[in-house]
Every structure is written in C-alpha cells, then in structure tokens.
From TrEMBL:
InterPro entries: DUF559 (IPR007569), Endonuclease_DUF559_bact (IPR047216), Restrct_endonuc-II-like (IPR011335). This is DUF559 domain-containing protein. Residues 266-337 form the DUF559 domain. It comes from Rhodococcoides kroppenstedtii. Pfam families: DUF559 (PF04480).
Length: 346
C-alpha cells in the first residue's frame, strides 16, 4: 500500500491503518459506504458520519456530535450484545431495570464496562436519548464503539468522517486526534479533509456509487452502519416491524434477515432483507430511495438474477409494512405455502 496520491488496492478496508488518523482521497463517503455493504469479513466495524457545518464548527462540537452518533448506533445495536434486550413494546421502569440487570450480567464475562453498558441498555429499553453528563466522553466513545464492533462480530471499530468544505482544519484535526486516542480508527474524507494536512493521505480506488442510488449514509443519519447479517437493520422501522410480525408466526421459521446472496460466481454479492433459502424466497422492503431511476433499474437487475435461478422475489414498501402489515404477512405466507407444497426446484 502507498500514500499521498497513490492508489490503494480494492481491499482498501483491510489496508488503511486503524491506529492513527488518515485522510482518504479518490472516493466519497457514499462510495466507501456502498463498497462495504455487505460488510466484508476482514474489516473493522465501520460507522460513517457526515458532519454538517454546525457540527464541524469547533473541535468540541465535532467531537460531541461524533460521540453522540456512535452512542446512538450502540443503543440501536444493544440487543445484539445484551441478550433479552429486544422487547421494544415494554417501556416501563421495570423493563429499564431488567435491561440494566442483563447488561451488568453480560459485562461480567466481557470487556464491557458494566455501568455504561447498563446505561445504554436502559436507554434502549426506554427509547429515550440518554443523558450525556453521566459518563465522560472517553467512556462513552470507547464503550459505544465496543458495542458497535461486537454487534458486527468484529474486534475493532473505525469512524469514517465526512468533513464539509470550509471546516476549520485545526479544529477538525484536534477532534480527529482525540477520537483516535480514545481507541477507534479515524478516516477523514470529504472536501474539508483536503485542508487537514497534518495526516497522511491514502487514495482509494473504488467504483462510484450512482447519484440516484441510496446508500446506507443516505438512508440512516447522522451515524450510518451496514446491516448486520442475520438481523433486521436496527435503524429501519419497517425491517424491525416485519421481524416482529414474522417472529410471531410459526410458518415463518427458517428465514434469515439481511442475508448476503451471490447469484453468480462473478457477480458482486448483495444483501437481501429477508430470505428463506430452502424455499428460495426473497423479500425486499423498499424505502422512497427505491423510486429513483437508477435504483429501480438496479432492483430489476437483481430481481432478474434471482428469478432466473429459481427464486421468487416479493417487494413491499416501508408504508406497506408499517400500515398494511396484514396484507404483507398474508402474501409472504401464501408464497411460502406454495413453495413448500410443490418443492423449490423451480
């Protein structure tokens, strides 16, 4: 790997350092996010943060904004680290106390700091923004980053920060160095990163994400992360809702959420929202971004790849799942019953 304008190999996520701040050239935040969705097996758990002018105004505001975004991601992902924390219907004080107790018990056999993990679990159980003055920023960042990493099955996390043009270079540099010293990798990108010249530069060569295709950084803000294989995306209300609905149906067993599918050996793998592999049924939940011309075309290409290999593809909108879920669930059940009745060799 080389620096300062030379091109990093396609597996850039494996070669960029995690122990110091670096600048990334040649690819936007959207390009980088699109290239790690689905998340490769050999990368740190990434969290993408797009700073606005207000967040990047000073070192303190940028640091606070990034820490808050990492903490929010950790709250969303806490059910993957603390068993029994995925009961969103109960927001009572008893549920919060139970969440704290489970978190403390989990921390005893892990590297998590028990009081802070309990703090996150209680915030998730109550669906409230946690207080920011209970723990230091260092504790919040390291503790939240550890949750994000564990949820993705990784040992470390990395922050990919998009810096807006005109952001004060000295403040951005100070914030980035603090974040890195607190224990996470920091990669700076965006127009504003060019002026932060105290850090080494790595040029990354990846395909550009089409402008009208929504990546994870377009769909989820301010902190974005790839879906976790086997689970609904924690920041998607529609995916979470469908997961809850299907979990109550015995016929829906055998499914996988956010499964990586590779229809052909030469094709790029992609993530499908819900999959029944034995029955060869794929369910996709489309947000507003799927209405764009490029995304519609990409969706049809993916559907065709699956269908020519014997798959049935069912598509629903977010609104379908959130407001007309009975029809959605009935459609999926009928498709499964037909496949199971006739076999899946078609």
């Amino acid at each position: 790997m080389t620096r300062a304008g030379s091109t990093v190999t396609p597996a850039w996520w494996r070669t960029l350092p995690l122990d110091r701040v670096v600048r990334v050239e040649g690819a936007s935040l959207r390009d980088l996010a699109d290239h790690v969705d689905p998340l490769p097996a050999d990368t740190a758990a990434p969290l993408f943060f797009r700073a606005d002018d207000a967040a990047a105004a000073t070192a303190a505001t940028l640091t606070d904004a990034v820490v808050a975004a990492v903490e929010q991601a950790a709250i969303e992902l806490i059910p993957l680290c603390v068993p029994g924390s995925d009961s969103p219907a109960d927001r009572s004080s008893l549920a919060r106390s139970a969440a704290r107790a489970r978190a403390v018990e989990t921390a005893r056999s892990s590297e998590h700091f028990g009081p802070y993990l309990a703090h996150l679990a209680a915030a998730g159980a109550s669906a409230r923004t946690p207080r920011t003055d209970t723990f230091s920023r260092e504790t919040r960042l390291t503790g939240a980053a550890r949750v994000v990493a564990q949820a993705h099955g990784r040992d470390t996390a990395v922050l990919v920060v998009d810096v807006p043009a005109g952001a004060p270079a000295r403040d951005v540099a100070a914030a980035a160095e603090w974040l890195c010293r607190a224990g996470v990798g920091v990669w700076l990108t965006g127009d504003g990163a060019e002026s932060v010249d105290r850090f080494p530069t790595y040029r990354v060569d990846v395909p550009a994400a089409p402008s009208d295709v929504a990546t994870i950084v377009d769909r989820f803000r301010p902190g974005s992360y790839p879906p976790v294989v086997g689970h609904p995306h924690a920041a998607s209300a529609a995916e979470e809702r469908l997961h809850t609905l299907l979990s109550m149906r015995e016929w829906a067993t055998g499914r996988g959420h956010n499964q990586v599918v590779r229809p052909s050996e030469l094709g790029r793998p992609f993530t499908v929202d819900v999959v029944w592999k034995r029955e060869k049924i794929a369910v996709e939940i489309d947000g507003p971004e799927h209405r764009s011309r490029q995304r519609f075309s990409d969706d049809r290409s993916r559907d065709n790849l699956l269908q020519t290999r014997g798959w049935m593809v069912l598509r629903f909108t977010n609104e379908d799942v959130l407001t007309d879920h009975e029809r959605v669930v009935a459609t999926i059940e009928q498709a499964l019953q037909r496949r199971r009745a006739k076999g899946t060799d078609t």
